[in-house]
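Input record, target 12 of the design panel.
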C-alpha cells in the first residue's frame, strides 16, 4: 500500500519558465517602458520646434499690432502676479 501512495505523489518534470503567465507579466512591464522611451525619443528628435532668430524676435517686438493683440493676455498675467484688478482703460470718444 505504501508503494501505491508514493507512485501517486511523485513530482512531474518541471515546466519551462516561459509556460508560466506571471513571468510574462513581469517581463511585459519593463518592455513596455523601453518601447515607450524609444517612441518618446523619436517624437523629440523629429518634432523639433523651429529656432527663432534675433531678427524675427525684433520684428515681432516692433510690430504694434502684436502689442494690441496681446494686451488682454498681459493684463491677465499681471493680474495673476499681483492679485489686484487692473483699472479699466480710459475710453475716448471722438
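The sequence produced for target 12 reads:
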Amino acid at each position: 500500500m505504501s508503494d501505491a501512495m508514493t507512485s501517486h505523489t511523485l513530482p512531474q518534470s518541471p515546466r519551462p519558465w516561459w509556460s508560466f503567465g506571471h513571468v510574462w507579466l513581469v517581463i511585459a512591464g519593463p518592455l513596455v517602458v523601453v518601447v515607450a522611451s524609444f517612441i518618446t525619443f523619436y517624437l523629440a528628435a523629429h518634432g523639433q520646434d523651429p529656432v527663432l532668430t534675433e531678427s524675427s524676435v525684433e520684428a515681432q517686438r516692433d510690430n504694434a499690432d502684436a502689442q494690441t493683440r496681446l494686451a488682454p493676455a498681459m493684463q491677465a498675467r499681471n493680474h495673476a502676479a499681483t492679485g489686484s484688478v487692473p483699472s479699466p482703460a480710459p475710453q475716448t470718444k471722438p
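The two ends are 116 Å apart (CA to CA).
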